[in-house]
Every structure is written in structure tokens, then in C-alpha cells.
Amino acid sequence: MAEMTVEQLADAMYEMIKDAKGMKKYKATDLQKAMAERFGADKQACKQAIRLLMDSGRCIYTYFGGSYIEIPPDQPATP
Amino acid sequence: MAEGKKYETPKLDELEKGAWPSFVKEIKAAAQKSPMAAALLGQLEQSYNEKIGHWKHGGIVGVVGYGGGVIGRYSDLGDKYPEVAHFHTIRINHPAGWFYTTEALRGLCDIWEEHGSGLTNMHGSTGDIIFLGTTTDQLEKVFSKLTALGFDLGGSGSDVRTPSCCNGMARCEWACYDTMKVCYNLTMAFQDEIHRPAFPYKFKMKMAGCPNDCVAAIARADLSIIGTWKDEIQQDDELIKKFADEGLDIQRQIVSRCPTRCMDWDGKKLTINNENCVKCMFCINSMPRALAPGKERGAMVLLGAKAPIVQGAQLSSVLIPFIDLEDEESWNDLKQLLENIWEVWCEEGKNRERVGEFALRVGFGNFLEAIGLEPTPEMVAYPRDNPYVFYQTAKKE
Ligand code: SF4
Ligand code: SF4
Fold it and tell me: Looking at the complex, does the CB of residue A34 fall below 8 Å from at least one CB of chain B?
């Protein structure tokens, strides 16, 4: 399998989060493990991809008893 | 900022009585200028009457790009106390050893009076500077002013929490290593891990300069670095005699209270069997200057303390019995050890499982093997209850 770029990993993570929206929340480690399994991505590339998602505002961190990565809601989330 | 609505607070008023500092007094002072602080008094009084807390926390945290440093806090009585409907907490990375200039403190207070309730907690149990109470729309403004002042947010959520240390060599003759340097270096080395939560749960690092452990690392931190020494306790016989002459009963008050009974006092000379000293600091604390930690100083690295959350409280276990943290090599060893711990814990740890709980669940022997450390006798917390001895059934020929 050709090596994924950081941008492609970020897109794949984003799709994963989007597909699970409202059903399951992912932590950074869940995304890393999924990317390693599907594309053989290494930890460093996954960290950069998460950073890309955050800095671009496509995703945000949330806290519900642990830290999760989610797509920003239209309205600010309350617990 | 305008004065807020006044609430009757007979229960809270009780907490102003007595000789001790009172948080109620401080909130009332802040309420002179801040409607948020005034509403906080109203909600708190209601909580005391009903014996129910009215805060929910969580939700969206942080500023753009960061996953830690802001704890979303919301009132479930937002209609009644709209000023505290959003009352977020901000954690700010404190300087190592908590040294500030008055100018820096004034700068922090100015920011908070403009963008928050004006209430601070110096410092929270994590060590951070805590700003209590602001609204979501103020978060980015506070963050940009903080960075302009040279401050950054601290950790919160499932990340490396802001490392903290005692003020060690800056003020204390017993510091066995430079806690503030190590704290600063760890903070700078792991910025990504502090700001971008990627762990199963929180990870705290605390550094104490000697076994007195003024930052309670052994009880609170996932990774504790506690100063220790390898050689003999330094002893000034003249000063010991002076303590005795001034009325200290060395036999009764010192020697017989040594936990390992490794001291002897013949009425003139104190003899310490240093091989049996467990470095509890009791004798050194009791006779300052007459006794002092040895000259060959460094630190012990321990893992796995936590307060009771999911399971009961837990104290740290030894990982590295002695490291000097002076040269590049030992510094790199420590960083590598941390990377190894995080790698294994992230891979196998359960959600909300502290690293110490994880190590216990998989077995400390397995954990050590996974992070690449050899077991050593110093790791045995309870002699005769040794978790590192494995009995294997002999295979039949
Ligand atoms: S932990 Fe030890 S070195 Fe640090 S301040 Fe306390 S007594 Fe001093
Ligand atoms: S430090 Fe503690 S164990 Fe060591 S000699 Fe003093 S009292 Fe005894």
C-alpha cells in the first residue's frame, strides 16, 4: 500500500469521525489505531494529521469524562 | 465592571468567621466589581441549602488547536443565575517553583478582571494558576492576552498535566537535584502531549527535591521524580552535640524513632548505619544543619500514584532507583522511558485507566518488560510479597 500523506490521513480520520457522529466518540488513540490498521500509518504521522484537523478547525477536542475528537457542533456543546 | 445583584447568604457568612482565610470573603470582595462573582454567591448559598451541587462540566474545551487548559463548566440554574450559566475554568501553566514578578501577577489579574470573574485559585492541586469563571466567547481573548504576557495554558483532560515541582535549589538546602530545571525541561519537551490529549487518561508529573516530597509526588503523580542520595548522610558532630546540650533527647526523640533503627547514640556521638537508612528524612528534619542529605545526590523515578477515582488510592512504585539528571544521557534516558510508558499504555490501556492501574492490571513484571526495564531489588515495595518472582511448573521429561 502506498504511504498515506498527512493530509490523506487527516481526511480518513475526518471521514471516520463524521460517519460515527451521534453514535460513537473517538479518542486520539482510537484514530491512531484505526489508521495503523487500515493504512499502516505511524504514530507521528497520525499526530500530525490530528494537529492538522485541529488547527484547521475541522475538528475540536471535547471532554466527556475523557478527551475526544469531534466535528464542531453548530451550537456549543453542553454536557 | 458593574456590581452584581446582592444575595442573602447566611450559610456562607458562617464561613467568614474564625481565624482562617475565607474563600467567601474573597468572593464577596470580587462581587463588588463582578456580577459573575455576585451570582456565584447566590448559587453557592442555594447549593448549601439544598446540599446539591449545581455545576456540570465538560463539553467543548480549549481554544483553537488545544485540547487542554480549559474546563467547560455550566450551571444547571442558568435561568436563575444567568451570569454564571457559563463559568469555565482556565488552567495556566505556572512557572516552575511558582516564582513570579509582581508585574506578572498584576498582568494576570488585569486580564482576568477584564475577561472573567476576577476570581483565581493560586494554585490548584495540579499546580496551575487557576482562573475561575468565564464565558465561551472570552476564551480566545484570554488566551491571546496570556500568550502576549508570556504564559501558556496548562493541561487538562486525557493529556500530560502541567508538570510541577518544589522550589528545590532556589530555596532549599535539601534539594538533591535541580527540580525547577527538570520541571521546565519536561514541560518544554512535551508541549504536544500537554496541549493535545492523546492518552487513555490524565498523566501527572511532579518533582520533589528530596524525600520530604513537598509536592506530594509519591501520592499524586503518575510519574514522580524524588530527590535522594547514594552515599552517607552528612553529619556535623559539633552541631549534633549542640542540639543535645540545648535539650534535645537524641536517644528518645531521634534514634528510637528512626524507622529502620539504624542509628546509635552513646551520649556523645551519633553513629548512623547508612546501609540501612531508608532516607525518610526524619532525623535530618529534626536536626537541620547538623545532619544533611549526602553529597552524591540525584533522584529516584517512580510510577503510578493516584488519588481514589475509579479504584482506591495508590502510591508510586520505583522504576529507576537512581538517576542524576545532570548529563544529556540521563536526561535522554528519562525522556525515552516516558515515551516507552506512553506507547504501551496508549496501546493497551483502557479508557480512564491511570497508568498505575494499568501496570497493576497487566502485572508490574509484564509492564516492566514492555517498557524495557529490568527489575531491581529497589522496586520491591513489600518484601516477602514479591510480584517479580515467577514460579513455573517444571516440565515433565
Ligand atoms: S521536597 Fe525537599 S527539597 Fe523540595 S522544598 Fe521540600 S524539603 Fe526542600
Ligand atoms: S533518614 Fe530516616 S532511616 Fe535514615 S537514619 Fe535518618 S531517621 Fe533513620
Answer: no
